[in-house]
Structures are given as structure tokens and as C-alpha cells.
Design brief:
CATH class of the largest domain: Alpha Beta
Strand content: 15-25%
Structural class: alpha+beta
CATH architecture of the largest domain: Alpha-Beta Barrel
Distance between the termini: 99 Å
Largest sheet: 7 strands, mixed
Number of helices: 21
CATH superfamily of the largest domain: EAL domain
CATH topology of the largest domain: TIM Barrel
Radius of gyration: 38 Å
Shape: elongated
């Protein structure tokens, strides 16, 4: 059935202009045109209207006077007559679009230049939102000016564009802004602070135990942790602040309208509080902390790149100070960062090229017999510029750079090599104690790797003593028991280092095949003068 609806069915003197293509977007006003009314009724035009996939609407002062069935289908009305019953065709448009359209119409009627083709958000009869592309012309309707629209539903294309735009600006995992959007927001915030004379802060933070979560629970659990942390951040910061994920577990907060640096510290403390409660991962309550690096703008800099560098320097300093800390950027930290960067580069070269690294062997003496009963291998590093670098400084470098396993393997190999040299020289066997890092101890191939070294150098397994801190063995008791028994089975001697600081329980200790307990110095430094320390030391010795 063919339906063309027009208010009062007045067709005389109508000219319908064909729409331009969607690419033909021109900012000009089309003059009023007229033609002989007979043209309207010819078969070609009738077929065009009947089969058109485009909605056609004509209105005068927003009062509908013509609509076709395609328009009704697009907007979800049962028939074109339902649209003609509208008091104002602006009811088809989303509320936030109506002022713009009113302005367009006034400009057009006044002979001004407006776009012939534009897109807007519209409302279907059921209230749902769609996107429409419309081509607009001024036409002659019964000798009077009217406005003609050709409508195309572009909802799917628009939504696809919106999805792409969101992907370009937001992090898929957490829903936070991504690095690109963060950089834009930071530039705007700096400009705003410059105009108002206020104070702003850039706060970088990352999770202190994120790698451990990934290693222990898997990457899906790590993703869950990041999403939960992001939710807590958004729920606790001020509405005026901006949060982004820069990558991995590194997040950023841009804070404006601050009164002083104390306000930035308060934001960091607020986030710490938000992370204080446990997060359930795989049915297990997991606790996480964050470290923060803070730089102020415009005080420290007005350059976004410099501010990001400053905050990163402060973050590095905070993490070195311990977990759950924050630090403000200053010039001294910058100097330390330069040194740290130089040392990181140099340390990587030292490990790769075996330059400047060496072992010192600290003797273990039986004070009763006065004999050396063993040695402990201590890693040392000599730098051509900075001289002797303390392990307190280069071990964290090894951990953060991912070289801790490689350097641990180097120490094990050198220790086995030294044992063989002493054996070749005919010296009595002296066990060499080697400290294992937490990362090394968690290796699934640790027992196999140690066994290969012993076989390669043909040394007695008991001449190699592996030291594990008490906190390491209590991290995951079941996995620890398996690893320790594996090492014990190949004949390696085992020792617990820093005993007394890791909160071990006696039932657990009974399960560990340990050969030695090294009492932490905090219990023996003053045991001659402190009766409590002496009593604790005696109890530990008896237990051993």
C-alpha cells in the first residue's frame, strides 16, 4: 500500500529537492525553488517516494505538514500519520539537540549559512535513542517557504565510532582514561592552573605487590585486582580530580584546585585508606598497598613531560623507602635518580659482560675449636666511576631490573667453581653458603638448576649451603616444603637466615628439612647484657 501523508492534503506548488550524498557536506543556503505541480504526480516520483529507504519530513515553523512511511519506520511510529499528529517535530530530537536545531532554522530562514548535512541524536516513539543523518533544504510549499528533511538512520555507524573513540581514550580493562587522554587532561590542568594562579599536583602510583599477585594467582587475577583498585580510586577521590591508567599497574591522578602540597599528600593518604581493606581473588583475601610519587605544578614545572618524569622519580624514591609510602619530587631526588639510572645501566652491563662483579668469602668460625667451618659468599660490585657500590644499593637495582635471577645464578656458578678450585688445590672441603633471593627460590626449576651445577663441577652437594630467609619460607608453606625437600634430596645443605623475624610457627618448622638456623642479629647483639635476648637465643639454640 502506498501512503503519502500531508496535513490538509495540499499538494499544489510542491518542490522536493533530492538530498546530496553523505560526503557532499557544504555550508550554504539553498534558495527557495518551485516547479509545476504536475511533476509531483508522475509515476517516477511516486515510485521514488514509495520505495525510498530515507525518511522524508517537511515542516513549517516545526509544525509537520508532510511525512512518508520510511520516516515512521525509522522513528518507530506505526504510520506516517502519527508523526503528523505531533505538535512540534522537535519532539523527534533529543532534548540537548533542540536548541541547536532551532538556531539552524533561524539562521537558514534569515539567509545565513548552515550545514546542509548534519547528524543529531533523536528519540524513537518508545523513548530509545538513535542517531540520524539529515539533509536539509528550503522548499516551496503552496507558495510559502518550508523546510524539507531527508533522514537516514546512522545509529550503528555512530555507535561504532563511539566505541572506537572510547578505545582511543579509555583503558579497556579498568574503564579509566588511558595514557593519551591523561596527557591531554594534564595539559589542560596545567593551563587552568596557569590562568587561575592555583596549585595542581600530578600523583603517580603503582601497586607494591602486583607482580607477586600475577605470579601466585595468574594474570586474570591480576586483571581483577587492577579493576577493583580502579573502582576504589574513583569512589574515593574528589569529583574534580582525574584518574588514568598509564600502563601495567601504574596509575595517575591529576588534582586541581589545591591549597598546598598538603592537599596532595591528603589525596595519597585517602587512596591508601581505600586500599586498606582486602580484595578477594580466587576465594582468597588479598591485601595490596601502593607507592606514590608526587610533583606539584606549576612549582616544579609547567611541562607535562617534565612533570611526568618528576613524579616517576619521586615514585621510585618512595618504593625504595618501603611499601605504602609517598614522596614529593625535589632537586635532590633528581640527582639521586640520575645516579640510579647510571647505576642501572652499568649494572646491566656488569652482569652481561661479567665486569666489576666479584665474590668475597666471609669465614664462619667455630669459636670453641677456633676453626673455619665454612664461608658465606658475598656479592660485591666495583664501579669505575662510583667505586665500591653497597649491596644495599645494587640489590634493589637487580630486583627492579629483572636481573635478580640472572645474578643469583651467577653467584651459584661462581661458588661451585670456587669450591672446585679449593678441592683441586688439595684444601680441606669448606662449605660455601649462598643466599637465595625470593624470586630465585620461587623458580619451578630451582632443584634441577642446582643439580646441574653440582654435576657440572663434580663437587660434593653438601659443600653447597643454600640460605633462605624465614619470611621467604613462610610465604607459601606447601610450595616451600616441596622445594626444600627437593634440594635436601640432592644432598644440598639448607639454612634459615634471619631466624626470629619471620613469625615462623614451630609446627611449620618441624616440616622443613633444615640443617641450620641463623639467629637474627637483633637477638644476639645485646644478649650478654639483655636477659630476655639471652633467653630467646638459648631457646632457639635448643630448638635447633
Amino acid at each position: 500500500m502506498f501512503h503519502i501523508c500531508a496535513r490538509k492534503k495540499q499538494w499544489h506548488g510542491l518542490f522536493l529537492a533530492m538530498p546530496a550524498s553523505s560526503q557532499d557536506v557544504r555550508a550554504k543556503t539553498t534558495p527557495v525553488a518551485s516547479t509545476d505541480s504536475a511533476e509531483y504526480f508522475h509515476d517516477g516520483f511516486r515510485g521514488l517516494i514509495e520505495n525510498s529507504l530515507q525518511g522524508i519530513l517537511i515542516h513549517r515553523d516545526w509544525q509537520p505538514i508532510f511525512a512518508n512511511d520510511a520516516l515512521a519506520r525509522i522513528f518507530g511510529y506505526p504510520e506516517a500519520n502519527a508523526i503528523l499528529e505531533l505538535d512540534n517535530v522537535r519532539e523527534l530530537y533529543a532534548e540537548h539537540e533542540r536548541d541547536r536545531l532551532k538556531m539552524f532554522n533561524k539562521t537558514r530562514l534569515a539567509g545565513g549559512e548552515v550545514p546542509e548535512i548534519y547528524e543529531f541524536e533523536a528519540l524513537r516513539a518508545d523513548g530509545t535513542s538513535i542517531w540520524i543523518q539529515t539533509t536539509v533544504r528550503v522548499v516551496n510549499w503552496n507558495g510559502e517557504r518550508a523546510t524539507q528533511h531527508w533522514f537516514i538512520d546512522v545509529t550503528e555507524r555512530k555507535r561504532a565510532e563511539q566505541r572506537l573513540a572510547r578505545l582511543a581514550s579509555y583503558d579497556v580493562l579498568t574503564g579509566l582514561a588511558n595514557r593519551a587522554m591523561f596527557q591531554s587532561e594534564l595539559r589542560q590542568s596545567i593551563a587552568q592552573v596557569g590562568r587561575t594562579g592555583g596549585i595542581g599536583a600530578l600523583i603517580l602510583l603503582d601497586l607494591d605487590n602486583f607482580k607477586d599477585v600475577n605470579d601466585s594467582h595468574g594474570h586474570p587475577a591480576g586483571d581483577t585486582l587492577l579493576k577493583r583498585v580502579a573502582q576504589r580510586l574513583v569512589s574515593r577521590i574528589r569529583e574534580t580530580d582525574f584518574v588514568a591508567r598509564l600502563g601495567g599497574d601504574e596509575l595517575a591522578i591529576v588534582a586541581n584546585n589545591l591549597k598546598s602540597a598538603n592537599d596532595a599528600a591528603a589525596i595519597a593518604e585517602m587512596v591508601k585508606d581505600a586500599l586498606a581493606n582486602s580484595i578477594e581473588l580466587d576465594g582468597t583475601d588479598t591485601f595490596t598497598k601502593a607507592s606514590f610519587g608526587i610533583t606539584m605544578f606549576l612549582e616544579d614545572s609547567s611541562d607535562p613531560d617534565v612533570l611526568l618524569k618528576n613524579a616517576d622519580i619521586a615514585l621510585y624514591h618512595a618504593k625504595n623507602a618501603g611499601t605504602g609510602r609517598f614522596a614529593f619530587y625535589n632537586a635532590d631526588l633528581n640527582a639521586q635518580a640520575i645516579r640510579q639510572k647510571d647505576l642501572e645501566t652499568a649494572f646491566r652491563m656488569a652482569v652481561t659482560d661479567d665486569i666489576g662483579l666479584h665474590l668475597k668469602y666471609q669465614p664462619k668460625v667455630d669459636i670453641v675449636q677456633g676453626e673455619v667451618v665454612g664461608v658465606e659468599a658475598l656479592l660485591r660490585w666495583s664501579h669505575e666511576t662510583y667505586g665500591e657500590i653497597s649491596p644495599v644499593e645494587f640489590i634493589p637495582i637487580a630486583e627492579t631490573s629483572g636481573l635478580i635471577v640472572e645474578i643469583g645464578d651467577w653467584v651459584l656458578r661462581k661458588s661451585c667453581e670456587q669450591t672446585l678450585k679449593w678441592q683441586t688445590l688439595g684444601l680441606p672441603p669448606v662449605p660455601i653458603a649462598v643466599n637465595l633471593s625470593a624470586v630465585q627460590f620461587k623458580r619451578t626449576d630451582l632443584v634441577e638448576a642446582v643439580g646441574k651445577l653440582i654435576g657440572e663441577f663434580q663437587i660434593e652437594p653438601s659443600w653447597l649451603e643454600l640460605e633462605i630467609t624465614e619470611s621467604m619460607i613462610m610465604d607459601n608453606v606447601e610450595e616451600t616444603v616441596a622445594a626444600l625437600h627437593g634440594l635436601h634430596d640432592i644432598g644440598v645443605s639448607l639454612a634459615i637466615d634471619d631466624f626470629g623475624t619471620g613469625h615462623s610457627s614451630l609446627p611449620h618448622l618441624k616440616r622443613f628439612p633444615m640443617d641450620k638456623l641463623k639467629i637474627d642479629r637483633s637477638f644476639v647483639n645485646d644478649f650478654v647484657d639483655d636477659a630476655d635476648d639471652a633467653a630467646i637465643a638459648q631457646i632457639i639454640i635448643k630448638l635447633a
